């Protein structure tokens, strides 16, 4: 049985290899992130909101408006809702949480 704890540090050559791998991994990850930003910024998306404008406003019209302008614009909250739904559609979980928890439960038993 061993009485003294020995710690073997990497040799200078091994340390240089580790530094090289870490630097290479950093630059490859940065390149991957640049690729993701490029792909996401080069996508053309057109939203078609089929919600019709509401009929007449609840307040009385002023005398200066034209007869054909009796509809109001769609609320800004509708635009926020559509943007939120689009954001949720872009998020995709690659790992199933229930399967991961089940595997963790089986491994810990």
UniProtKB/TrEMBL annotation:
Listed GO biological process terms: cilium assembly
A GO term from the CC aspect: MKS complex
Keyword Transmembrane: yes
Residue stretches spanning the membrane: 20-39
InterPro entries on file: Meckelin
Record bears the keyword Iron-sulfur: no
Alphabetically ordered keywords of this record: Membrane, Transmembrane, Transmembrane helix
Name of the protein in its database record: Uncharacterized protein
Organism: Ixodes scapularis
């Amino acid at each position: 049985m061993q009485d003294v704890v020995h710690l073997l540090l990497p040799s200078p050559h091994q340390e240089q290899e580790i530094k090289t791998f870490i630097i290479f991994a950093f630059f490859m990850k940065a390149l991957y992130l640049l690729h993701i930003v490029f792909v996401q910024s080069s996508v053309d998306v057109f939203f078609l909101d089929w919600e019709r404008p509401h009929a007449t406003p609840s307040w009385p019209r002023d005398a200066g408006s034209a007869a054909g302008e009796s509809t109001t614009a769609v609320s800004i909250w509708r635009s926020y809702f559509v943007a939120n739904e689009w954001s949720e559609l872009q998020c995709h979980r690659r790992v199933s949480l229930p399967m991961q928890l089940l595997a963790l439960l089986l491994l810990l038993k």
